[in-house]
Design brief:
This protein has about 250 residues and is an alpha/beta fold. It has helices at about 1-25, 45-50, 70-75, 140, 180-185, 220-225, and strands spanning about 160-165, 175, 195-200, 210-215, 215, 230-235, 240-245. Helices cover about 20% and strands about 10% of the residues. Strands 2-4-6-7 form a four-stranded mixed β-sheet. A three-stranded parallel β-sheet has the order 1-3-5. About 10% of the residues are buried.
């Protein structure tokens, strides 16, 4: 036991000497010889030789493309400013993508990390979205509120929107619908298969005495049209006839 402890102490001292030897070589002056005593010489390097001495311990960048790059301007914090043209990722932040299924030497070869058997190792999506293995899923555990489009059975009506900005250039007293706007070139995108709804635009509505025909109107759009002396007419979705005048 005593011999084991002595050998352990010797190994520790040897490792410490191997670690401190490069530091002592870097800190010692160049004129210091092996025969000189350490007590008669200073422990620090003089100012004249400090610039010539180099430390054997250096750091190596992980990103090999930036090892030889000149980044002295970026390291000068006082005289440099970060902008969009000099931003760079940190070394090691960008890695190559993992190439799966390219042999066992790549680390993701045979099964590509999906295991050997089972439903989740097969090609394609194994389960539908929201499936929780057979237990009651979240969208069925939550309470349902009437009138809220949540889950099957709830639908939302989609309209083709006509903004009141597009009606400002029309002449006063004219009858306006989607077909007339499309023919005049005010509206260029045709969505004739959808029902049309008039909504309030960003610019203030300035056209006067217009008769606007659509399948639906928002409250703000109706108030803007009627405030200028106009009239809103609702159309039937099936036949396109005037259903109601207001």
């Amino acid at each position: 036991a005593v011999a084991r402890e002595r050998k352990k102490r010797e190994r520790k001292m040897r490792a410490a000497l191997l670690f401190l030897l490069p530091l002592a070589t870097a800190l010692a002056p160049s004129s210091l010889s092996s025969s000189a005593s350490y007590s008669s010489s200073p422990l620090t390097t003089p100012a004249s030789s400090s610039s010539s001495s180099t430390s054997p311990m250096t750091m190596k960048l992980f990103d090999w493309k930036r090892r030889t790059a000149d980044e002295s301007s970026l390291n000068d914090v006082e005289n440099s400013e970060f902008a969009l043209n000099n931003l760079k990722p940190a070394p090691g932040a960008i890695k190559r993508k993992v190439r799966k299924g390219r042999g066992i030497a790549a680390g993701q070869g045979a099964s590509c990390g999906f295991g050997m058997r089972g439903q989740k190792s097969r090609s394609g999506r194994p389960t539908r979205p929201g499936f929780e293995g057979g237990q009651q899923p979240l969208y069925r555990r939550l309470p349902k509120f009437s009138g809220r489009p949540l889950g099957p059975g709830h639908t939302r009506k989609i309209y083709n929107l006509i903004k009141t900005d597009e009606l400002n250039a029309l002449t006063a007293g004219s009858v306006v619908n989607y077909s007339s706007l499309l023919e005049s070139g005010t509206i260029t995108k045709s969505k004739s298969t959808l029902p049309h709804k008039v909504v309030l635009g960003k610019a203030p509505f300035s056209a006067e005495n217009l008769t606007v025909q659509a399948h639906a109107f928002t409250k703000s759009a109706r108030e803007a049209i009627e405030g200028k002396g106009g009239k809103c007419e609702l159309l039937k979705v099936s036949t396109g006839e005037v259903m109601q005048e207001s």
